[in-house]
Amino acid sequence: MSLSNRLRGERQHQPGPGRDARRGASEGRACWSDKLKSYVDHHRTVFVGTGRRLLAEPAQTLMTALVVAIALGLPAALYVGVVNLQQLGGRVESSAQMTVFLKKTVSAAEIDGLQKRLQKDPDIQSVNYISSEQALKEFQLLSGFGNVLEMLDDNPLPAVLLVQPDPRFRADLVGSEALVARIAALTTVDDVRLDMKWMRRLQGILEIGERLVFSLGLALSLGVLLIIGNTIRLAIESRRDEIVVVKLVGGTDSYVRRPLLYTGLWYGLLGGLLAWVLVLLAMLWVAGPVAKLAVLYQTSFQLAGLGISGLLGLLLSGTLLGLVGAWLAVARHLASIEPK
Amino acid sequence: MIRFDNVSKRYATGQEALNGLSLHLGAGEMAFLTGHSGAGKSTLLKLIMLMERPTHGQLLINGKNLARLHHSQIPYYRRRVGVVFQNHQLLFDRNVFDNVALPLQVSGYQPREVGRRVRAALDKVGLLDKEKQNPIALSGGEQQRVGIARAVVHKPRILLADEPTGNLDPELSGEIMKLFRQFGELGVTVLVATHDVDLISSMGQRLLHLQQGKLVSDERSGHVA
């Protein structure tokens, strides 16, 4: 059937123009509940659709996502480093606070007396006695110098009291030092070591590290915004025809904006995920040497990773940066595309 | 439905496209807009589509002054107008169905409803069997019919066309014009800009002749097809 025949055939059952005009007007608009459902559906469709579009160009997508990933991964990796050092600091804080070395000449009774006296001291939480024999055994066991030590006539190690001061001294260096001086003045005591000093220094370094992570994160976040903004600008250019047509058939600005914003969101999300993978790979890379080092230091130190909260943080910050970057590009460039 | 009240349009380049034009087109009326290129036909249509704003005068659509329409309301206004372009403005990154579905999708129709209406529109222009093809694979006449299907799929109150038969041979052009007349008979206000006077003179419709931005004649062509 040719087109003209088809039209002629149809015209025979056409309703009157007036009636049809009314129908055309009322059906020209969708009802509200449909619109809401359609709005939600459209978000889902656009989310999936833009994801598919990105998958259709895997090399291009991967490159952009990787740049985002590196920018997010660098501060994340540094953050992991700082967290691990903090963990090390925390260990020192909670374990050996003061080591009291006793004179070699003191008798068992004197040690017993001293231990009881220190335990009664209100500034002290607990006292642990390690005899020189015990210390030697532990040293032989852990250091691997067993054979060498057996050749010695004498036990070179002094008896030790491990003193755990009251928790209020943890942050109080001056008070701790006064306590150290008080214990050191006792006649049976040879020397007192306070591990807090070097811990303080470590904490100072970590504070700098934290700020470094923050400022690096800020600078690289700005980088991510620029990268995604530029990518979206190119996307706007390549979809110029589509944008013009959509505007001509009554697409709102937000309708036009939506796929572009979701594209930015995808880049951010993928970048965040890749950043997490990169950090994970870097951690696997250093885990071996760290474990070896931990053995050398005779600690059970375990490398802490980013964990689930780190993953969520990376995904969230990536998504947010992607959205904002896309929004900036859209705000700058979309208004200039109008049907002419 | 469409009322031009002493409308002038001067472009930033200084070109005077329309000059004190007054015109009224009633609801359900059909008219052809003729004139040489540069006479102001395209500008007139662009003003109705709000792609341009008049420099002077008022343009009322369905009793509403378009100058009072806020920028954010333009999309909703455009959803009640259908346009066919000479270069049809089809998107070649999607098939015929998705091209025609676009006006419904931007208005938030449900997919089932979209499918029903798109097929009805494609059936009307005789392209139901081409819905899965990419428009780039179609002939010029078929592409133009896809453009028409897209312009009418959302049942607009007003249908505009700018040189819809520009690249087509006379036989195809005639069929396209009959398609427009059919929509006119369905109660849609139709305004078609064309320079093809031979083709439309036999269609018995109102003819508006533009010359240098002025309406120089407004007549009903004598013969009925």
Oligomer description: heterodimer
Instruction: Give, in order, the helices and strands of chain B.
Output: EEEHEEHEHHHEHEHEE
Proportion in β-strands of chain B: 25-35%
What is the end-to-end distance of chain A? 38 Å
The gross shape of chain A turns out to be elongated
Low-confidence stretches of chain A: 1-28
Q: Write down the overall geometry of chain B.
A: globular
Overall strand count of chain A: 4
SS field, number of helical segments of chain A: 12
Radius of gyration of chain A: 36 Å
The largest sheet of chain A has its strands arranged as: 2-3-1-4
Please identify the structural class of chain B as seen in this structure: alpha/beta
**Could you estimate the helical fraction of the residues of chain A in percent?**
over 70%
Would you tell me the structural class of the helices and strands of chain A?
alpha+beta
Summarize the structure.
The complex is a heterodimer of chains A (340) and B (225). In chain A, 73% of the residues lie in helices and 7% in strands.
What does it look like?
- The complex is a heterodimer of chains A (340) and B (225).
- Chain A has 340 residues and is an alpha+beta fold.
- Chain A has helices at 3-11, 17-27, 32-56, 58-94, 108-120, 132-143, 146-150, 173-184, 196-238, 240-248, 253-296, 307-333; strands spanning 98-102, 124-130, 160-165, 189-194.
- Chain A has a 4-stranded antiparallel sheet.
- The radius of gyration of chain A is 36 Å and the shape is elongated.
- Chain B is an alpha/beta fold and 225 residues long.
- In chain B, a hairpin with a 2-residue loop joins strand 9 and strand 10 (214-220).
- In chain B, 48% of the residues are buried.
- The chains are: A alpha+beta (340), B alpha/beta (225).
- The interface between A and B is large, with 44 and 42 residues.
Task: Show the helix and strand layout.
The complex is a heterodimer of chains A (340) and B (225).
Chain A: H1 3-11, H2 17-27, H3 32-56, H4 58-94, E1 98-102, H5 108-120, E2 124-130, H6 132-143, H7 146-150, E3 160-165, H8 173-184, E4 189-194, H9 196-238, H10 240-248, H11 253-296, H12 307-333
Antiparallel strand pairs in A: 1-3, 1-4, 2-3
Chain B: E1 2-10, E2 16-25, E3 30-34, H1 41-48, E4 56-61, E5 64-65, H2 74-78, E6 81-84, H3 96-107, H4 111-124, H5 140-152, E7 158-162, H6 170-185, E8 189-193, H7 197-200, E9 206-211, E10 214-220
